[in-house]
């Protein structure tokens, strides 16, 4: 086969793919449906041109399509790693990880259920072994979510629903391919047919792939900063990564290559933005989108071209088996969607999903290129019997065609029947109100433009009057006052604020005014705010917004690591992340308050704008309190962080000034490049985010604590050996009432509150808490809660008693403090008992 002919054939396919995209949009079809149909037509035409006796002119080109120069294994190795890796880059990974339990369960269980139901349904009629039927079930268990997700976005479905479908489909493919490999091994004798051994192999391959992908992905991310701002090098490195992971997993580690690529892509998506510049990350995304488009389109059209060959010799029995396959596949998907998903909802592992959306997910289970390629690989496996090859190839190919031609063409009509594409009265009212305001603004801008360009009033009036009439018409049909309650208007305002907040955070990310470290986690929180505002209104908005100031499980884990393993690096990073996130949120909230006043108030009215302003003001107060607490504990770091923010802002302004001057030809290319190079060097030498010192060195804490100021150096050194540092966050319980006294806590910095049944007392630097239970042997008599960030020194009960014996002065001081606190408790108790 001549190389120029092969190149011409593939170039022709790319031309066809490019032309089909706008045609699919015009016909209101999913591109995959049109590509499959055209691919099949190319396959038929190529076979006709190759074997017809009328002409030999096109034989060389036709032969490329009839017998492609690449087999299914090559297609999988070349295209599959790219498709899987790019899909992970487009996912909102942090948001998907919130639903990892339902996604993982749906993915794995959906594959197992589909494989089992399809296999056992076909076995009585198929005339092949049960393993062969199960193999077909695994092949057709892979779903293509692109069409469903795109339609969900068009109709404004909850973002979480789309993420569930995307995440489930990604792991669905991985689980199906793992199961496919195991069942194929059973058919060829390479794998033991024992069920328990197969289950063990499945989970070993699946979990092993996850672990390998996580390790390799984390290591790969560490190399990104070495390439600095070299976008081409970073993209090249990212393209090589999925191929290396795929080959190493399959050939060396003997784990699932598909799962490993997915896991490495997730890690790359999570940590990549923190290692390169925002512009470089956006560029990497754009390049990967183009690569994935080529890969997905080529793999699909190549597989579609082979459809006529795979369907050769289609019989009536095959038609019956296809009907059984369709019913079984639909039933299996219904079991998962209407059976398993409600169970997850009952177990609080998943948010409730509307029945109409479930129906769309059920009907949107289209199959795509992966199914066709897996079926093709069976036909190329010469160790399999011919009847098994034909059984799998014919039914898998027919099923793909059915899902594309039936599901793909009827999905949007189904959505119309379910009325998922129509605006609610609330949305319609908002549309009219927004249109009225927007058209009024446009009319004013048209008048200004006409005046600026000296266009006659008569001509300007023709355009201006048209906008005025349309604005008046939109205002007339708007039914806000009659049909829409304030609560619904507030909901609209909250949604608008949440969407605007995401835009503002992204703008700061792209402008580089905040470091890359916190942006992905911050965007995840902002996305959750938007989702909760849509589904649960003001309550959901406020609850999600409070997550910005709350301390999550990861933070608690970092505290545990510092407390028991004496490793403070994770805690130091998370405290610094929190500091920067609070600072960014304060800036964004100020911008949101202005947005509410300038844009939402004219749209929704003074009363709603006032409610939204109050909501934003409460959020801002919480953020300011959080920042003040951190500033009180780490004033130098707060100054350094704000200085770094202003420096980044200045660099952004400087870059914009150079770009404007270059655009207006005030400076030439050579000077512009020199200025940009100087700015880039300054950014590089400026370093990253300031380093935060938690101040948890035991010797320094002992030296800072006035409690130990009168001790000799040798005595302090002994205390240093006995003490261990501990970091406490605002609101954290240092001591709980009723617990057994196992330690005393010396406060080196910060403040806490002792809460008894009779009152509360503040304690701070130089105080000790928890000593009363150690002296009396009684359970804790009060709660002790950190009021701010506290650095504590913890002394175990055994060491405390030993220290008290060795140092009479310390014992006397501790006993004096205990007596004072007991006296305060008694005074409070007496005050409460005295009748007024």
UniProtKB/TrEMBL annotation:
Membrane topology, from the record: Multi-pass membrane protein
Subcellular location per the Swiss-Prot or TrEMBL entry: Cell membrane
Chief localization: membrane
CDD domains: CAP_ED
Keyword list, A-Z: Cell membrane, Ion transport, Membrane, Sodium, Sodium transport, Transmembrane, Transmembrane helix, Transport
TM spans (from-to): 6-24, 31-51, 103-123, 129-149, 170-190, 202-224, 244-271, 291-312, 319-340, 360-379, 391-409
SUPFAM superfamilies: cAMP-binding domain-like
UniProt keyword Metal-binding present: no
Database matches in SMART domains: cNMP (SM00100)
Pfam families in UniProt: cNMP_binding (PF00027), Na_H_Exchanger (PF00999)
UniProt-recorded name of the protein: Cation:proton antiporter
Species annotation: Pannonibacter anstelovis
